Amino acid sequence: MATTTPRMDSAQLRSLADRLKAWRATRIGRQRIPEKFWAAAAELAGVHGLNRTAAALKLNYYGLRRRLPGNPAQRKRGVRHPAFVELAPPVLASSLDQQGTIELIQASGTRLTLRLPNASPQDLLPMVELFLGRRA
Questions:
Q1: What's phi and psi for 102, nearest 5 deg?
Q2: Distance (Å, whole) CA 68 – CA 43
Q3: Do residues 17 and 8 lie in contact, with contact meaning Cβ atoms separated by under 8 Å?
Q4: Is the Cβ–Cβ distance between 65 and 71 less than 8 Å?
Q5: What is the DSSP pairing of strand 99-105 with strand 111-117?
Q6: Which residue, 39, 60, 81, 123, has fewest beta-carbon neighbours within 10 Å?
Q7: If you ran DSSP here, which 8-state letter would residue 70 be given?
Q8: Is 11 helix (H, G, I), strand (E, B) or coil?
Q9: Which candidate, 63, 57, 58, 25, places its Cα nearest to that of 44?
């Protein structure tokens, strides 16, 4: 099977390919490619396309795709969800003498247990809706 060298029409693509070739010739062992090269390659991939850029620069396609701006994997890395959220109970009328406990479990395993003495369903509804992601 014959292999073909990808075309490099762009001077920027050729320049980066030359810089990468020079870096590869001087690297020590299995040293990782510096982020400055990945960033430049990601910028060029926005212009020339991901596959063409990865092939021309002899970079890992998936490694380059991970570094593209707007990649969902990049957005997920920075997002942190709280492990625990405590809500203050609503102020309730003291004339109610019922014990209020409700436990909700989402499909993801997230659990909410509310133990509010003297709480009516109308008092608990806003917190339940917030937990389920629905606002009335």
A1: -140, 140
A2: 8
A3: yes
A4: yes
A5: antiparallel
A6: 81
A7: T
A8: helix
A9: 57
Q: For residue range 3-31, what is the model confidence (pLDDT) as tens digits?
A: 544 555 688 899 999 999 999 999 888 88
Q: Is 13 helix (H, G, I), strand (E, B) or coil?
A: helix
Structural domain boundaries in the chain: 11-78, 81-136
**CB-hemisphere CA count at 13 Å for 56?**
24
Are the CB atoms for 36 and 19 separated by under 8 Å?
no
Show the CA angle centred on residue 33, arms to residues 3 and 68, nearest 5°.
80
> Other CB atoms closer than 10 Å to residue 20's CB: what's the count?
19
Alpha-carbon distance 20 to 27, whole Å?
A: 10
Q: What is the pLDDT of residues 95-133, one digit of tens each?
A: 444 466 778 887 778 888 877 777 777 777 787 788 777
Residues 6+ apart with CB under 8 A from 74: 66, 67, 68
CA 4 → CA 1, 21, 55, distances in Å? 10, 18, 10
DSSP annotation of 20 reads H
